[in-house]
Amino acid sequence: MRFQDVLRRQHGVITRAQARACGMSPALVRRRITRGELIEVYPGVLCSTAHRATSRMLVTAAARWAGPHGVLDGVAAAIVHRMLPRQPDRSRPVGVTVPHRVRRTVPDGIRLRRRDLAPADRVTRDGAGVTSPGLTALETAATLPDGAAFLDRVLQRGLPFAELLAAHDRNIGAAGLPRARSLLVEAADRADSRAERRLIRHLRRAGITGFERGLPFGPWFVDVAFPRKRLAVEVDGWAFHSDPERFRTDRRKQNALVEAGWTVLRFTWHDIRDRPEQTVARIRRALGP
């Protein structure tokens, strides 16, 4: 192990234990600190002044302080996952989670949270323990003023919505999750809107016409309606299944449509994305000749 190699790999960060493994005596480390070549940012964790001070250096130092049982969480984890380029507010402490059994004296600059994470919520990235992408996105979104926009960007870059949902369900009751849940519902609504647009593209490609999107019906709106055929097509997203009041409202709408002589078809996002031919075929059959 070479001193410079460790610094390069760890964004300018090295622990005292790693310095010893590189052959540096405690006296040599002290001299380098005295000369201003190294700075002890956390107990036992050093940063090289020859490297540019960045958010990645700061969170890497926190990860080294956290040790093998700790993980970065929130914004710090988002930086490691490359969901954020930098710490939005450098005056805020770096978030670290440790199990309940771990007792540490918390230094300045660290916000320590004690909780026992599920194995699925702990991952390793670039040698640092961090919360999983799903939990990281939720907890970070809950702390940002533009949390909704952040969550949308993360989803657009490929994080599966199912992973967000699973992380949410594993951590119900955790601090910050109520706001994260509201942001998740909003993201689901936007995903549902995209699903409706995708369904309309499928219908147009199949040569099916005569539909309206968002047709007013009493106090409600029909997702995709064929007024002449009295056929209502509803897209059920995550918010429909997880929000009891929304579920009841949709049931009242469906009952009113049926009482008024409408046929109601319900499809999920997976139906529209993964089984478009079957979905369009079912709508075509319901429309009849």
TrEMBL record:
Transmembrane segments: none
One protein family per Pfam: AbiEi_4
Lineage top rank: taxon: Bacteria
Residues annotated as domain DUF559: 190-287
Location of the AbiEi antitoxin N-terminal domain: 5-47
PANTHER family: BLL0828 PROTEIN (PTHR38590)
Protein name: Very-short-patch-repair endonuclease
